[in-house]
User: Fold this.
Amino acid sequence: MEENSHPVVIEKWEGGKPHTGRVFAAVFAHSDDLAIFAGGLIFKLISEGYTGYFIKTTNDEMDSYDLSMAETVFRIYNETIEVTSFLGLEKLYSLDYKNHYLEHGQLTEIRHRLITLFRFLKVDTVISFDPWGHYEENPDHYITGHAVEQASWTSGRQLDLPELTDMGLVPKFVTRKYLVARGPQVVNRIVDITPVMEKKVEAIKIHRTPVDNMLRTYVDLHPGEKIEADAFIRGEFVRAAEKKYGVAYVEKYHYIDETESFSFLRNSSESE
Ligand SMILES: [Zn+2]
Assistant:
């Protein structure tokens, strides 16, 4: 996807811990979304002082090639715990909605569960799907993106779920959003992942069951071709970046800083 006319910021490795005290939640539909879409960013933000959590919305029961659903859930749960630890995240929260059926009328319920977790964990940054990304075929992806978008701002408002305040979960806005999409989206943030490129490949390999499913599905679609997992992962998910960025490997995001959302007020006062 091209960056259109949006100014693009390249996030490089500056060292230090500029984000100490900040908390992100990576909110994805499936176990393997985590390392595939955002493994590099997660390593980087944690190295810079962030505390991170993984909130997974589905139970992944469909993501093996031909195992039983029970075996699939069991294996992927263990792999998810392993990759959560490998990436340096504090904890996995799995909401465990039925895989491939997230659109079955549960958007508000998911939003409320996210608000509760965002307030409890004091989340100020999310990494998730871009709800405005085009041509996404998987309802789990776009429903998760919409739920995260809704929860990010309602989490900070006094009149949304006011009973939570009495439970000690006070309103807090999510102000920073790193959003990914498989199809066209606004790209205005390029994250340099070069120093952790090999660790990202290792993280994706921990998703053994989904990767096996992808490989065998690939062979179904391309009969006669043979491909190894390592070459598949590097070819699909960790490709060398375009030269214009000046770094070898990147992840691309639609980045939103909500503290800039009232800039029209500041701009109008400046012009007086
Ligand atoms: Zn997914």
Observations:
- Residues 29-30, 33, 138, 141 surround zinc ion (CB under 6 Å).
- The chain has one domain: 9-259.
- Strands lie at 9-11, 23-28, 51-58, 92-97, 125-129, 176-180, 189-192, 250-257.
